[in-house]
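Format notes (please read before filing issues)

Several people have asked whether sequences and structure tokens are stored in separate files. They are not. Every record keeps both together, in the order shown below: the sequence lines, then the token lines. Line labels are part of the format and must not be stripped during preprocessing.
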Amino acid sequence: EVQLVESGGGLVQPGGSLRLSCAASGFAFNSSWMNWARQAPGKGLEWVSSIDSGGTGTYYRDSVKGRFTISRDNAKNTLYLQLNSLKTEDTAIYYCVKDWGGSSQSRGQGTQVTVSS
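Then the structure lines:
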């Protein structure tokens, strides 16, 4: 059974930083592309970032380029997202997603990120 457990969210002021983590189990993490997505209040789920299985290829939506960094530790089966220079529009529930857009897409319960002064 695929399990994805996100953590690290919280309340932060604009310009602040957070580091999200996702502990993965139940599948071959070290051979899987992984993703982060988010859902803001009243909006749909949107893709944020992807990383290839080896961690060398990373991809970001335009609005977070230069501010967010995705990474992974295959020895620990853990995915990360470093969020810097946070803006109020980054407020959302952040999800770790396996197989984004695919037939076996799975996500965790999410972690809330709130950016507010």
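For reference, the curators noted about this record: The two ends are 40 Å apart (CA to CA). The chain has no helices and eleven strands.
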